[in-house]
Design goal:
By secondary structure, the protein is mainly alpha-helical. It is 92% helix and 0% strand. α1 crosses α2 and α2 packs antiparallel against α3. The radius of gyration is 17 Å and the shape is flat.
Length: 77
């Protein structure tokens, strides 16, 4: 069961990453910005969103010293 879920989620990540890269190329072409610039700004932002979500939820949902510890661990880890 667990290996099946892992395989399915790995496939979802593969498809999502491919689509994100293709979309970044399209954005670079349509806006006239360089592919490197779009890669640095757009893709770096998109891949940093999970860490941002973890930091925000650790402070708002968990709160207190435990939330601060989780946010600090997320920032340094």
């Amino acid at each position: 069961m667990l290996w099946g879920q892992l395989a399915i989620l790995a496939g979802v990540i593969l498809v999502s990453a491919t689509q994100l890269a293709k979309s970044a190329d399209i954005i670079a072409f349509k806006t006239g910005l360089g592919r490197s610039f779009v890669g640095v700004v757009l893709l770096a932002t998109a891949t940093s969103l999970p860490e941002l979500g973890t930091g925000i939820s650790s402070v708002t949902v968990i709160g207190g010293p435990s939330g601060a510890d989780l946010a600090a661990g997320d920032a340094f880890g």
